[in-house]
Task: inverse folding
């Protein structure tokens, strides 16, 4: 019967369906709604095409008119159920759908319908609202308004589990600030959520998510929670770690991680820590969403916690993670999570790093630097950054080869800023290279790219690029240093020393300090172009408010002071100038009289180099320093509480005294 | 877990008999068994769980009235679940999708794998009915976009479309897709998803208890001769053979 098939196909056409949606006949409308619902549920493509056709406002229109008129309770409620279900489906997993639903004004209607006596109507509406609240685009629910708070409590206290679930979802979505957490906690919401932990699976999971939102980074609310029911709240959470449902296990663990990261005392028990890790490692096997989220939870648990990293390592977490990484057809989210968890495991412990190298996944991580998803490229860099912290491998020059260096240099052109920054952080590690294979990096064009990014408008990029350059010239041979300086140019270096960001200044000065570290030949290049570099360094030492900038500067000057007479005189000139914002004496005196022992030590080192015997100008320098009150100040430091300072002062004073006796 | 210990009969002191098996007579065994108290309500709950999960609505209703055991889900929803399951078993996939969506529109929206398998089953049914053109159009319109979203769906789709390439599908490498077992597989996925949406487990408890019984008996066989249950349907204790 080709004719009926064709007719049916025509009736399924979108514009025909939309026409019937607008029909005045309730039965026609209902049928069209049902067709629309069955077409879009589960089908992203269809959702997008109907959203484009402007169908959402039509559906919201049907909902609104069915609520306000409701001529016949029977068919009226079917229209509400169908239209509410469609609105929920449009909002499920499609940002454009959430936007369209909100713009069409569905929100207030849906909230109003929650008080409808028909259970099916309430079920569907609560589900649809929850779909909307699961999107980041949903408006923030303002708990500080009294009517909103009342509404939330009535939702949480409902007998209908979809409605209580909606209440919990609203908290999960909107409880973001300490103020929100405080309002909800003092209104007794914690207590209610804990009761819901004993409800159905669905209520339990919704409540766990809401609890996590309420406890996150808020030690006051956490201690409220822990004190509830004589600590029974916490123990029921711990029990849920062993629930039958994998998702419940993960959510309970996520909540415990949030508690432990804020108040570590609740996560001290070694058995509990072990259990957390074992269950997480076991959950890695789960398919779908749970399995996707597990590595992120694991990473979150162990970040900056060496004790937990060690436990995870002992639980074979690294083997498992690397094993999963090698599976085929991993979704990008899962891949990203695995890389991140591996990265955190290798962030501190050398034992983890050696294990990582023995598991032969390095190539896989390097290949994922070319992954389509920017998030994956970023975490691949973070993972490499952490494994390249291995001094053992670094000193063997293990990473300094084209296979590693080339893809990293390419990432310096990446369209994503965070990828570029992450790539720079790996490069910063591998260019340290104690095996003197730095020329490979030069040959691959890496320095050129670092210099380019050191002039970026983005301060983070500038900072990380200069940091990488600084590490490159660390213990480099003079010809490599000259290449870098030539590429960077003197004027760029000066502007980096005077960068608006103190952190960039600090790294630029540290770069100069590293350049100057290999004897007199390395000092000469800093004196080109009328010494504008040393002038810039001196200016920062005198002007900067940031301690680290002053420190790097004074040490750079100290290195210059190891040079010839001309160099030493230049340093004398810089440090005997007064500080701009300080008392009207020299910056050197300020440092020597100051409270900061690091600055005192830096200044004393400078003096040791300036008064080093055997120089023709040494006596005259000592005389000038004495006239400036410096030697007198040094004597006062003979009993410096900082042992390093005390020891260096001894050396400096001995040199001065020695010179005196020789002169006489 | 308590039932597991019942079956083992709390075998205290059996360890020292490691070399020669201990003989437990029927009297001793029955005495041990009668020492274990099982609450009637727990037994009833197990029965109710079985009836609900397997979809025996009328039996469950009668049992509820007679034993006073409250089921943990609304009995009316069993009918809906069974109807959706049955529709897939009969090859009416479109009908099944509508039923699932009426029951709870969230299920197929949040379960892409189930949604794909239902659409795949629809394609299989079209191919089975020889509607080649319609099948191709359906694969292109409805299934191809899902394949783009997920690599493993794409592979399954390719396997399914391959059915069209064979004259004699009953004898081709992907012929298993046309088997009844494929429908049953999809149907049980529907069943499990609906149960999950009701916060329910997907398998009844009774069969897993029986599995535990078999395991526990085989463990005990190593150590003792005792009145065994060999026929699970009658559950009669059979006297141990003499050692």
Result:
């Amino acid at each position: 019967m080709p004719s009926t098939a064709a007719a049916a196909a025509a009736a399924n056409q979108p514009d025909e369906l939309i026409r019937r949606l607008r029909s005045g006949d309730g039965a026609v409308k209902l049928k069209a709604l049902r067709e629309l619902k069955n077409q879009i549920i589960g089908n992203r493509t269809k959702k997008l095409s109907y959203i484009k056709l402007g169908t959402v406002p039509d559906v919201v229109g049907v909902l609104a008119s069915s609520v306000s008129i409701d001529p016949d309770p029977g068919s009226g409620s079917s229209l509400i159920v169908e239209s509410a279900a469609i609105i929920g489906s449009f909002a499920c997993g499609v940002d454009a759908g959430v936007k369209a639903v909100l713009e069409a004004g569905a929100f207030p209607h849906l909230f109003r319908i929650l008080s409808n006596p028909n259970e099916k109507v309430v079920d569907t509406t609560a589900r649809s609202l929850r779909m909307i609240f699961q999107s980041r685009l949903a408006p923030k629910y303002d708990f500080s308004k009294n009517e909103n708070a009342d509404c939330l409590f009535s939702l949480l206290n409902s007998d209908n589990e979809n409605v209580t679930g909606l209440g919990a979802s609203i908290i999960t979505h909107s409880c973001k600030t300490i103020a929100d957490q405080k309002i909800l906690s003092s209104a007794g919401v914690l207590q209610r959520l804990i009761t819901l932990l004993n409800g159905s699976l669905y209520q339990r999971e919704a409540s766990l998510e809401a609890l996590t939102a309420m406890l996150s980074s808020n030690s006051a609310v956490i201690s409220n929670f822990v004190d509830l029911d004589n600590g029974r709240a916490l123990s029921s959470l711990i029990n849920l770690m062993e629930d039958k449902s994998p998702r419940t296990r993960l959510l309970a663990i996520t909540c415990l991680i949030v508690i432990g990261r804020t108040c570590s005392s609740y996560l001290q028990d070694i058995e509990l820590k072990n259990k957390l890790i074992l269950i997480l490692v076991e959950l890695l096997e789960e398919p779908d969403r749970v399995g996707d989220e597990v590595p992120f939870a694991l990473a979150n648990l162990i970040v900056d916690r060496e004790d937990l990293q060690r436990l995870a390592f002992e639980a074979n977490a690294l083997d498992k993670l690397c094993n999963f990484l090698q599976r085929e057809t991993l979704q990008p989210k899962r891949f990203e999570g695995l890389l991140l968890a591996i990265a955190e495991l290798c962030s501190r412990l050398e034992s983890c790093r050696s294990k990582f190298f023995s598991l032969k996944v390095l190539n896989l991580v390097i290949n994922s630097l070319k992954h389509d998803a920017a998030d994956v490229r970023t975490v691949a860099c973070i993972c490499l950054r952490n494994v390249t912290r291995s001094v053992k491998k670094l000193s063997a020059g293990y990473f300094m080869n084209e296979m590693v260096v080339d893809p990293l240099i390419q990432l310096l052109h990446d369209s994503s800023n965070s990828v570029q920054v992450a790539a720079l952080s790996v490069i910063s590690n591998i260019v340290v290279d104690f095996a003197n294979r730095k020329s490979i990096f030069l040959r691959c064009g890496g320095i050129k790219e670092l210099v380019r990014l050191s002039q970026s408008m983005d301060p983070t990029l500038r900072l990380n690029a200069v940091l990488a350059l600084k590490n490159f010239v660390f213990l480099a041979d003079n010809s490599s240093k000259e290449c870098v300086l030539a590429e960077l140019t003197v004027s760029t270096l000066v502007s980096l020393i005077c960068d608006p960001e103190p952190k960039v200044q600090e790294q630029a000065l540290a770069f100069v300090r590293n350049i100057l570290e290999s004897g007199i030949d390395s000092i000469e290049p800093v004196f080109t172009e009328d010494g504008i570099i040393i002038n810039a360094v001196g200016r920062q030492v005198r002007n900067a408010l940031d301690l680290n900038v002053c420190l790097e500067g004074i040490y750079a000057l100290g290195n210059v002071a190891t040079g010839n007479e001309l160099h030493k005189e230049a340093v004398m000139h810089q440090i005997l100038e007064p500080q701009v914002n300080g008392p009207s004496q020299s910056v050197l005196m300020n440092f020597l009289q100051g409270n900061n022992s690091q600055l005192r030590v830096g200044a004393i080192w400078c003096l040791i180099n300036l008064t080093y015997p055997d120089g023709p100008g040494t006596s005259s320098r000592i005389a000038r320093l004495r006239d400036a009150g410096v030697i007198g100040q040094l004597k006062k430091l003979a009993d410096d509480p900082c042992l390093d300072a005390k020891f260096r002062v001894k050396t400096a004073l001995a040199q001065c005294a020695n010179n005196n006796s020789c002169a006489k | 877990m308590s039932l597991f210990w019942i079956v083992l009969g709390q075998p205290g002191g059996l360890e020292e008999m490691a070399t020669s098996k201990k003989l437990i007579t029927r009297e001793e065994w029955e005495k041990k068994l009668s020492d274990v108290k099982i609450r009637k309500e727990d037994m009833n709950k197990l029965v109710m769980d079985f009836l609900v999960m397997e979809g025996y609505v009328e039996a469950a209703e009668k049992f509820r009235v007679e034993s006073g055991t409250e089921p943990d889900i609304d009995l009316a929803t069993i009918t809906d679940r069974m109807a959706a399951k049955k529709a897939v078993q009969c090859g009416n996939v479109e009908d099944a999708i509508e039923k699932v969506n009426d029951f709870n529109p969230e299920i197929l929206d949040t379960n892409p794998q189930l949604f794909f398998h239902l659409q795949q089953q629809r394609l299989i049914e079209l191919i089975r009915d020889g509607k080649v053109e319609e099948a191709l159009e359906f694969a292109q319109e409805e299934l191809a976009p899902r394949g783009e979203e997920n690599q493993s769906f794409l592979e399954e789709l390719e396997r399914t479309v391959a059915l069209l390439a064979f004259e004699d599908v009953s004898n081709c490498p992907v012929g298993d897709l046309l088997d009844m077992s494929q429908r049953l597989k999809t149907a049980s996925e529907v069943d499990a998803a609906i149960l999950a949406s009701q916060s329910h487990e997907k398998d009844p408890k009774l069969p897993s208890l029986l599995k535990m019984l078999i395991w526990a008996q085989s463990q005990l066989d190593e150590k003792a001769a005792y009145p065994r249950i060999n026929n699970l349907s009658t559950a009669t204790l059979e006297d141990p053979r003499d050692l």
Q: What stands out?
A: Strands of chain B lie at 22-23, 224-225, 228-229, 237-238. The CA atoms of residues 44 and 69 of chain B lie 7 Å apart. Chain B touches chain A at residues 94, 97-98, 101, 104-106, 108-113, 115, 142, 145, 149-152, 199-201 (CB under 8 Å). The longest strand of chain B covers residues 22-23.
